[in-house]
Amino acid sequence: MKILGIGNAIVDVLCKVDDDFLKNNSLTKSTMKLVDENEFKSLLKNLKIEETVSGGSVANSIVGLSQLGDDVGFIGKISDDILGSKYEDGLKKERVKYFYSKKKESTPTGTCLILITPDSERTMVTFLGTAGKINENDIDINAVKKSEILFLEGYLWDEGEPKKAFEKAIKFSNKVAMSLSDLFCVQRHKNNFLELVKNKLDITFANEKEIISLIDGKKVEDIIEFSKEIKKLIVVTRGEKGALAVNGDEVIECPAKKNLKIVDLTGAGDLFAGGFLHSLINGKNIKECLFKGTEMSSQIIQVIGARLK
After folding, report:
1. Helix axes 57-67, 268-281, angle to 10 degrees
2. Which domains does the chain have, with CATH numbers?
């Protein structure tokens, strides 16, 4: 297996809203907020659902890799309920090997409300459900050992059980990549993330705001200096400024694609990571990896949702 992802197994529920909806519900645009089941249901009851799909950040990247023809797998915790079955079927349909045997859990399968505003930005409200309770017993060690790269998401890095699950997976991995996921996520787990980026990860994916917050930097030059210092591969997306990678002493840049008809930014970072990793495991150089990531993310932002059809 080329890449094994471990992440939140979340069913995405896509809805279109206006800016007032975010304001009235005290939501910060373009971020992810964790809520309990009751708050989730009360938000959902006033909305029209456009689409539901098996999601989660790393799962989106893994499906993108599968669509590009790579042999990939995923570990994520679901419950044996309607959404759990829907989630599993969604991955199998995309030819992703799913290394998890679902059973009836006390908490339901996780769900993420993706609110798309007219400017195509997406704001996420997540009820993690059982996804956030992944523990070390859920990790298939053989699957980890047999994959070339283990790909993790920052969203899942919480104290306690998920942290132990990640540590176990990292211990048996050949190479580790991780996405920092979200600015609030970085702020919540700053010390843990810094330790991971410096000492445990081979590849880190982040957008400019996330990595600058992590290193207490101010500008892109600070990111470059930090990356050169730790001698790891750091890949940074910069919106309309394109993307850059720092690999050892080498800094490689890639421009953003122009004149796109952007309809929804959901999955842009996920598909960027998927495209980058696809090129990497198929022997391409870093510049080609950046171009493939940029190509994939520019395709996904021109459709609704985080799946290329």
Report:
1. 50
2. 3-300 (3.40.1190.20)
Q: Is the pTM for the entire model greater than 0.85?
A: yes
**What whole-number percentage of the chain has pLDDT above 70?**
98
Q: pLDDT for 187-212, tens place per residue? A: 999 999 999 999 999 999 999 999 99
What amino acid is encoded at 274 in this protein?
Answer: G
What gap in Å lies between CA 138 and CA 245, rounded to an integer?
A: 33
Name the packing angle between helices 286-300 and 268-281 (round to 10°): 150
List the strands of the sheet with 3-6, edge to edge: 97-98, 72-75, 3-6, 149-153, 176-179, 203-207, 233-237, 243-247, 250-254
Tens of pLDDT, residues 280-298: 999 999 999 999 999 999 8
d(CA 205, CA 275): 12
Q: How open is the CA angle 72-74-77, to the nearest 5 degrees?
A: 170
- CB burial class (10 A; 0-12, 13-18, 19+) of residue 275? buried
Which two tokens mark 87? 């989630």
How many CB atoms are located within 10 Å of the residue 146 CB? 12
Q: List 74's β-bridge partners, or say none.
A: 5, 98
CA distance 32 to 114: 9
